[in-house]
Amino acid sequence: MSHIKQVGFTLIELMIALALGLVIVAAATMLFLTSSRSQALQQGQLSLQDDANFGLNYIVKDIRLGNLNTINSSINDLTTYGGIVFRSSENSVEVSGVERANIPISIVGKTVNETLLTRSDGLEVGTSPQWTGVSNVQDRSSDQLTIQFVPQYVLDHKNTANENDDVWYGGSDCEGTELEFSRTEGRQVIVQRYFLRPDNNNSKNEPNTPLALACDAGHYPLEGSPNEITGLGDDGEIILQRVDHFRVLYSIQSGENHRYVDTATYMAMASRPRILAVQLGVLARSNQSVGTGTEFSDSQVFRVLDQDVTVTKPIGNSSKYARQVVTQTIALRNAFGERGQ
């Protein structure tokens, strides 16, 4: 009988082939992991930039309405019916024997509590949904900005001779509520406050306390002696998610001295000059983790306008997130005109 010769790989050849295969698989795995990390980083940075820029631009559009349709072009802590709201009947000041504030003195009670007005780091905080100074950075409180303005109303006569069904239309406020008031109610002054608050619509894996920049709006009658602000003092509507810190500064000029100050500094001045512009700064975070690499340090310092801040290190969460500081300087166009001070 003839013997059949068997042909195959030797043990050494199999070992070499297996080693080469493992090298190729390892290289492919490294390429895949690197691509995944790069994609996560790019998506995180993209969502971060889109959310922060678009969200802040939405606020900028509203803040430019500050002091709209008021007689006095000067914005300070005594500008009534317009401007930035620093004072109410709760913290009014006496000028020439008359109590003065931004909100009419006739309005008293919880709707004009100081913690619903413009606030900054270092001032007394309230309880939620009032301003609490909540922030995700170490040893700093976030700020709150409250503005007021009179919309450009249009009176709709409903094509009837009956004035009882006439309606004032003034667009919508920052919560998306249509500004529609009857002739009896009259035109209303709109009050809007911007502040950080916890965001309950979030993932369980997110670091720290998920915070969002929200806007709360209310209104009171322009004519007569109003006694309350309707709608102000609730949780408001979220404008920008995943914000770790919110800072506000004001451009003031006294003679040739021009500088930016926060609310606490401005209110402590013996003479409060007019405000010409507002600076906003937010420390925003990406919506997803960008991995656990060392390129994002827990001790990284961010410059938010005049503050150097470090994010509070989360407990039990090693995932890293991209963060970015976004700032805007807003000229208060309704505050320009003859400068009396």
TrEMBL record:
The chain crosses the membrane at residues 12-33. It comes from the Bacteria. GO terms for biological process: type IV pilus assembly. Coiled coil: none annotated. Keywords: Membrane, Transmembrane, Transmembrane helix. The keyword Signal does not apply. It holds the Pfam family PilW. The keyword Secreted does not apply. This is PilW family protein.
